[in-house]
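Lab notebook, bench 4. The sequencing result for the construct came back, and we need a structural model before the next group meeting so we can plan mutations. Quick request posted to the team channel:

Model the 3D structure of this chain.
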Amino acid sequence: MSSPVLKVTDLKKAYGAIQAVGGVSFEVMPGEIFGVIGPNGSGKTTMFNSVLGQITPDAGKIELNGQDITQLSPLELNRRGVGRTFQTLQVFGKMTVRDNLIVAAQEHKGSMGSRMLAPGDSGLGAKADELIDLFRIRHVADKPAGALSYGQQKLVDIAMAFMSEPALVLLDEPCAGVNPSLVGGISTLLKQLNAKRGASGMGGSFIVIEHNMDFVMDLCHRIMVMVEGKVMAIGTPAEIRGNKQVLDAYLGN
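Done. Here's the predicted structure in token form:
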């Protein structure tokens, strides 16, 4: 059996009398796309931000490839191979699409001195071009990111998260605000990235928080349902669809 890429054990976080996360435990395995769903206020974002080092949990343990990362900062986690996207776009509007991708990975390309002596693209041009082609944005690669449609910017934002070849990527509502016609394309791209990275030995493990149930059910290998800060169920899409407790508490609404 493979060891988990991410292991979260009894994670807790309270804000005064409100227990936002009340003892959450789960594992994400190598090459797994792991979905997290739940109604608003279920603790998904607090859990997500605790894993990413943006919130310090009150109790519990977070491990990445067997190493305790519970107290690490977002920058330290990024350097250890944790990538992420945000609900809101994080692109540099005045920079070209290609330069956005290059900038996203420069912190991982040697020391400051070596980057100053490197080519203009810091040696990252080929990697950027690979993702540009995979995401089918070659026709806008030299345009300012701010001039693109929202859906195209969303693709750039997701591509940026993969430029540093992270071992684990956390995707925060990748479909939010996206035209429904593009949702299927995002799912296909993430499946392709998952397969490509898994085949190359880079892991390809993703955690996805998303409200679009069709998207989650189609994309994810397993899904965790959170309600009121706790884990209600973890299972395959078929198991979650057939879970009466989940249907009554969440999907049925």
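Confidence is low (pLDDT under 50) at residues 109-119.
Will bring this to the meeting.
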